[in-house]
Amino acid sequence: MASKATRLRCLYAPPIPTVRPRLHSTRTFATAVSEPTESTAPPTSTTRRSPTTFKDRLNAGPSLSDFVSPPREDEEPMLATALVGPAGKQKEITRLPSWLQTPIPNNANYKSIKRDLRGLNLHTVCEEARCPNISDCWGGSDKSAATATIMLMGDTCTRGCRFCSVKTSKAPSPLDPHEPEHTAEALKRWGLGYVVLTSVDRDDLADGGANHFAETIMKIKSKAPGMLVEALTGDYAGDLEMVAKVARSGLDVYAHNVETVEELTPMVRDRRAKFRQSLSVLKHAKEAKEGLITKTSIMLGLGETQDQLWETLKELRNVDVDVVTFGQYMRPTKRHMPVHTYVTPVVFETWRQRALDMGFLYCASGPLVRSSYKAGEAFIENVIKKRARKNQTALAEGAITSGFETTNAS
């Protein structure tokens, strides 16, 4: 029997390396582990340590609780500032105001929707545009209570707007021919009552992707006839025939965003996107299908003035736009336009009232409101259903009246 000192190993294994113990002097070891007493002076070290500038900078910056904690009721609408950087080279930064702080998405339903999207190779503008409402919209009690804005035709845009974080390229990947079917199947599986579809701009395609968009809507309506569909489209480079094709494909709400006031459009949007061209899209969509609801969205905080906003709302009403939303512009990265102003909730409420007074059917306005906004979609859904019931009642009354007149004539 082998002795205790014998070390067993496989015959084909490499030799076991010999590890030599590291020797320490008794004095060094004692200095490292013992605490100084009254009779012993504390040890002095001659080793110079580098200054902990990164740690100081980290501690001076915002903490996780600054981003996820809800605002206090007694908190004033002021922007907090903090000094960051090493001593002597500190700079002041502005923290996000309390009304823009949102919870980190970590909901079971959020994870379930994300798995479905990845499994079918679908993209959402919620993720690509880093929407702050993703936790609220995806985190409902069940999938039927959740909303997700599906982004068609890939995740790469041919335009480069200065406010948007979606990837850009002159030659994106070819369209996925199975995307309309996969999108319709996913939405049918979720059982949603209202869905929003959007897309990247595809100036590389002859039709701008309008036929692909229209096919997706028709497949959704064939699989789920009761589902209401909103389409948030591009301007198709001003091709109004493509606008009409999407408007007549069976959708219920046609949305196209002007994004900002006319004066700021050249600095905010891609040079191919023009304010007047966007107005033309909204007008033609309304004329292409009777009863179609039209919708647009405006970002605040880019440096617009009150007079410019007034004029923008008047222009939208002139082309009979039904719904407008106001939201705070949030800078996605340092490569994008800086925020000019963080608009307070009180100002957003003021513009909501003004829009309603001007005759808009509905206006969602708030710091975290985005073009695809859950509360707005719920309101529009009710409006569409009421209109449908009213039309059915009118048809039924017309049929009864016609039958009564025929009976009297005979």
Automatic annotation (TrEMBL):
Any Pfam family the entry gives: LIAS_N
Enzyme Commission number(s) of this protein: 2.8.1.8
Cofactor dependency: [4Fe-4S] cluster
Cytoplasm among keywords: no
Enzyme class per UniProt: transferase
CC annotations in GO: mitochondrion
Binding site for [4Fe-4S] cluster 1: 126, 131, 137, 372
Domain Radical SAM core: 140-361
GO terms assigned for molecular function: 4 iron, 4 sulfur cluster binding; lipoate synthase activity; metal ion binding
Major localization listed first in the record, in broad terms: mitochondrion
Gene3D superfamilies: Aldolase class I
Low complexity bias spans: 34-53
GO biological process annotation, one example: protein lipoylation
Cellular location(s): Mitochondrion
Family label: Belongs to the radical SAM superfamily. Lipoyl synthase family.
Binding-site list for [4Fe-4S] cluster 2: 157, 161, 164
Superkingdom of source: Eukaryota
Descriptive protein name: Lipoyl synthase, mitochondrial
PANTHER family named in the record: LIPOYL SYNTHASE, LIPOYL SYNTHASE, MITOCHONDRIAL
Region described as Disordered: spans on this chain: 31-73
Comment on bound cofactor: Binds 2 [4Fe-4S] clusters per subunit. One cluster is coordinated with 3 cysteines and an exchangeable S-adenosyl-L-methionine.
UniProt catalytic activity: [[Fe-S] cluster scaffold protein carrying a second [4Fe-4S](2+) cluster] + N(6)-octanoyl-L-lysyl-[protein] + 2 oxidized [2Fe-2S]-[ferredoxin] + 2 S-adenosyl-L-methionine + 4 H(+) = [[Fe-S] cluster scaffold protein] + N(6)-[(R)-dihydrolipoyl]-L-lysyl-[protein] + 4 Fe(3+) + 2 hydrogen sulfide + 2 5'-deoxyadenosine + 2 L-methionine + 2 reduced [2Fe-2S]-[ferredoxin]
Keywords: 4Fe-4S, Iron, Iron-sulfur, Metal-binding, Mitochondrion, S-adenosyl-L-methionine, Transferase
The protein's annotated pathway: Protein modification; protein lipoylation via endogenous pathway; protein N(6)-(lipoyl)lysine from octanoyl-[acyl-carrier-protein]: step 2/2
